[in-house]
TrEMBL record:
InterPro entries associated with the record: MFS (IPR011701), MFS_dom (IPR020846), MFS_Efflux_Transporters (IPR050189), MFS_trans_sf (IPR036259)
Subcellular localization(s) per the UniProt record: Cell membrane
Protein name: MFS transporter
Main location: membrane
Claim: Transmembrane helix is one of the keywords in the record: yes
Membrane topology recorded in Swiss-Prot or TrEMBL: Multi-pass membrane protein
Domain of life: Bacteria
Organism: Shouchella hunanensis
Domain Major facilitator superfamily (MFS) profile positions: 1-376
Transmembrane segments: 43-64, 71-89, 157-180, 201-219, 239-258, 265-283, 289-311, 323-342, 348-369
């Protein structure tokens, strides 16, 4: 299993944490050096999400046409090209290009790797393999945090370092995975079949959207909460970020828990943990705040790993379709949630907003979950 899981973890770490999420950590120094304003920075940052969404739309089609290994290689290549472009950026357009290309890899990697796990792992190891691969985001966050702390003013050097790591990971993945051909090449699903597939995954999509919506306030404004409400230093807020990443590694255990107590109980139990961690951030004590980060990081990665497992059970032969749809719903929820949260924080407060978002997330507890495979794509 390690021959599949370890390079997969590395690819997720590169495409998610380094190529997509690290931009926001370097944003203040990056925009200052390039003489960009806040509006420019926000617009460029949004391109990463646009690229992620576009890649998710295309991923299932690409996998059916060229195979999951080639799509995984494309994901790694876009990460390398995007990171190099960011490291060498000297203008708004140059930086925009880099962020957009870098963001594509995250939307391609997860569906491709879930398909690889299905093809290469024994059936009893697929759940655990997928959830461990998904925890790669956490390993990436653990690495990017110290880099930001040590080289925050040398952002070009940092992105060159990320590009070198991404190149090594790309080569590792090329050498580790055997070639996989197209899946159902030439088969074009009709509108009716696509409607049926989406209908089969409707509860997964609702749960994914709900998690994206409720967790968005934590991802987007968690560090701002600490600095604005508690006067946290930049170092303290970065430690907070690294703790989220470190705890996310625990999310790799999702596959084992799902096999022990079932998909439904695992989802509800860990969702309560995540929502509780959001409430804990309202208590102004360092131990509670850092415990909140640990619980949130572990629970979030756990739940996204659970969604991958859920998707593979709905679409047994083409799990990449379910993963693409689930992560797309997750991303839409995060985008909408961040917009709403920003407005609420301006009109209310951080504390009230975090409380309301955690209460909204409780709706996810009533989402029904089927433990049976329900694939009927023909």
């Amino acid at each position: 299993m390690l021959k599949v899981v370890l390079p997969g973890i590395a690819m997720i770490a590169v495409t998610y944490a380094m190529a997509r999420l690290s931009f926001g950590l370097f944003l203040p120094d990056l925009t200052a050096d390039l003489q960009l304003n806040e509006t420019d920075g926000g617009l460029i940052g949004s391109l990463g999400y646009v690229a992620y969404t576009l890649a998710l739309f295309l991923s299932a089609f690409l996998i059916t046409e060229v195979g999951s290994k080639r799509v995984n290689v494309i994901a790694g290549t876009t990460a390398v090209v995007g990171l190099v472009a960011i490291a060498t950026a000297h203008s708004f357009l140059h930086l925009s290009f880099g962020v957009f290309i870098a963001g594509l890899g995250s939307g391609l990697a997860s569906p491709a790797l879930s398909q690889q796990a299905k093809l290469l792992l024994p059936k009893k190891q697929v759940d655990q393999g997928n959830t461990w691969i998904n925890s790669g985001t956490s390993f990436g966050l653990i690495l990017t945090g110290p880099v930001v702390l040590l080289f925050t003013e040398q952002w070009r050097l940092s992105f060159w370092l990320f590009a070198c790591i991404a190149t090594a990971v790309l080569i590792w993945n090329v050498l580790s995975f055997p070639a996989t051909g197209p899946t159902n090449r030439g088969k074009m699903y009709t509108k009716r079949q696509w409607f049926r597939m989406i209908s089969q995954a409707r509860y997964l999509l609702i749960a994914s959207f709900g998690l994206g919506m409720s967790s968005s306030v934590y991802w987007t404004f968690g560090r701002s909460f600490l600095t604005a409400e508690y006067g946290a230093t930049a170092t303290e807020s970065l430690v907070f970020w690294v703790i989220i990443g470190m705890a996310g590694i625990v999310g790799g255990l999702a596959g084992g828990l799902i096999q022990t107590i079932g998909l439904s109980w695992s989802y509800r139990l860990i969702l309560v943990v995540l929502l509780s961690s959001m409430m804990m951030l309202n208590l102004p004590h360092s131990l509670v705040v850092f415990s909140s980060a640990a619980l949130f990081g572990g629970a979030y990665i756990f739940l996204t790993g659970l969604f991958i497992v859920w998707a593979t059970r709905i679409y047994e032969t083409m799990p990449s379709i379910g993963v693409s749809l689930s992560f797309l719903a997750l991303g839409v929820g995060q985008s909408l949630g961040s917009l709403v949260a920003g407005k609420m924080i301006e009109s209310m407060s951080y504390s009230v907003t975090f409380t309301l978002f955690s209460l909204i997330g409780l709706i996810g507890l009533i989402v029904p979950i089927s433990e049976r495979n329900r694939e009927h794509l023909g």
